[in-house]
Write a sequence for this structure.
């Protein structure tokens, strides 16, 4: 009983820090409250995230602000057609004395202090690079120079270029399934936020802007322990578990629920995905959302709030519908929510 009370108090303290973490990021990233909440959920669920959005909407600024508030290091690499796995690990070049030199690459440069690794335009990189990234995501380690390098606190973010199709490699299903969420980062909807971003010079110097974020609001070394405590401390009822399984079945077999999507044969729409790993990620994210809202029990609203971001990218549909994927998958999820009654 005493241990349980101490755990509850510790989680309460950490919840206050998590909300402070969100406020610090919100000082420099305007109009993205939902995105910040989703990334906070991913941080405390210890999950990696795919980002979607136009260039120039502030994805890098957002991640740099997160790294500063977490208190860890940030590194970024650009996906290119000629990028090789070794480019993530080391940089070979000629020194000023004309002799060959090898310097640490973006993965090794910060060592175990690395908190956020941003892979920009991941679908421009070759599958060999994706393989190395998958190991980093799954094991938080890489092998190089006859030894293993560990990154116990790293969280991987990747951005896909969805506008240009030439010289791109679509992420395989297994790779997409490794990401906890896919989050859309759109332009701020509020006029006031747009006006500030364009006319306020405070937002034109990103380095100076990021200095406004309080560093080290969270302790990166404690995040793993807190994440485990959240998953143990936030409960699910048998009714909620039955509801989760019904949503899962509905996504995999929409025709069985009588879901109708204009111009789509729902009997052949879903080819795979929505795996047990994906549904376990859904529950993990829902528990963190409940905790952030000050509850120790998951309710249906928690599942529904994170369902599109956790499940949509791991639903694999018939290729003939792929060009209309975004609209169809949104309609599928809306149909499942309508047909499966929340308890």
């Amino acid at each position: 009983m005493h241990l349980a009370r101490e755990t509850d108090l510790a989680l309460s303290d950490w919840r206050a820090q998590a909300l402070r973490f969100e406020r610090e990021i919100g000082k420099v990233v305007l109009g993205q409250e939902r995105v910040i909440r989703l990334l906070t959920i991913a941080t405390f669920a210890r999950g990696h995230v795919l980002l979607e959005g136009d260039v120039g909407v502030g994805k890098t600024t957002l991640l740099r602000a997160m790294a500063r508030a977490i208190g860890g290091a940030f590194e970024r690499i650009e996906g290119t057609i000629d990028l090789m796995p070794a480019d993530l690990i080391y940089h070979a070049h000629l020194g000023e004395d004309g002799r060959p030199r090898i310097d640490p690459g973006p993965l090794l440069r910060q060592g175990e202090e690395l908190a956020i690794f941003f892979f920009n335009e991941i679908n421009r990189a070759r599958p060999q690079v994706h393989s190395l990234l998958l190991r980093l995501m799954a094991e938080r380690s890489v092998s190089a120079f006859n030894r293993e390098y560990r990154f116990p606190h790293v969280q991987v973010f990747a951005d896909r270029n969805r506008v240009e199709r030439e010289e791109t490699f679509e992420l395989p299903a297994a790779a997409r399934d490794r990401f906890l969420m896919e989050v859309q980062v759109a332009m701020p909807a509020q006029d006031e936020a747009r006006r500030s971003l364009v006319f306020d010079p405070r937002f034109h110097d990103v380095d100076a802007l990021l200095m406004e974020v309080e560093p080290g609001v969270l302790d990166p070394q404690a995040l793993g322990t807190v994440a485990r405590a959240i998953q143990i401390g936030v409960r699910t009822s048998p009714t909620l578990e039955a509801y989760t399984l019904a949503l899962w079945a509905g996504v995999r077999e929409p025709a069985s629920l009588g879901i109708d999507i204009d111009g789509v044969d729902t009997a052949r729409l879903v080819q795979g995905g929505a795996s047990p790993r994906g549904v376990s990620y859904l529950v993990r994210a829902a528990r963190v959302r409940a905790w952030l809202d000050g509850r120790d029990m998951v309710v249906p609203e928690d599942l529904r709030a994170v369902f599109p971001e956790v499940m949509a990218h791991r639903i694999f549909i018939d290729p003939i519908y792929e060009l209309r994927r975004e609209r169809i998958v949104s309609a599928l999820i809306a149909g499942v929510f309508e047909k499966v009654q929340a308890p």
Summary: The mean pLDDT is 91. The first strand starts at residue 49 and ends at 52. DSSP finds 14 helices and eleven strands in the chain.
